[in-house]
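>> received
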Amino acid sequence: MYTVLICDDDRDIRRALNIYLTGAGYEVLEAADGREALDIVSDRDIHLILLDIMMPELDGVSALTILRQRSNVPVILLTAKSEDEDKIMGLELGADDYVTKPFNAQEVLARVKALLRRYMRLGEKETRPTALTLGGIELDDDAKTVTVDGEEITITPKEYDILKFFMENPGKVFSSREIYRRVWQDKPMGAEGTVAVHIRHLREKLEIDPAEPRYLKVVWGKGYKIEG
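>> returned
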């Protein structure tokens, strides 16, 4: 059974999400602010976090900053429409996805299922290679690790998914919408900004000089590709 942590200062939102997630078979824990959420993560094995941005005590962005120093657990941000800057900052800090309030609890459940499926690698074909190499990048899909020029890097689940997708398709150009559809497995609404943030963050970890990338490259007007 997977454990999902709901972190939101609105008790009604926590209760509604709890009902849907518990009904879907997940163990659910609740936190009313970022500090409480970090304490729970320190004590329990958490598989996914639903994290509100605006909270007292310790907000979601600050909590995510601390969390990413300790863990790569998948994080879905719960945001208001007025929080676009915080949403982008959250994605830059390593959030995997976001849902805008007011949201449909069934949509949140679908995103939780999709992200956990990707993170836990359920149902993948056994014939797929478990290790991929491109230039100085090595991705070990059994250990879920990535090394660059022999040094292991810290990478979030969504960054891992994007990198693996590119490494399985070297030299091919993909638009932001296609990357979002294939990696997020969702309709590519607002895909350009979300994909750009993740790729920029990934470049900072892969490239010696992100401004002159060796691997993840832009094909102007068409999209992105990876080269060795």
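>> Residues 122-128 have pLDDT under 50 and may be disordered.
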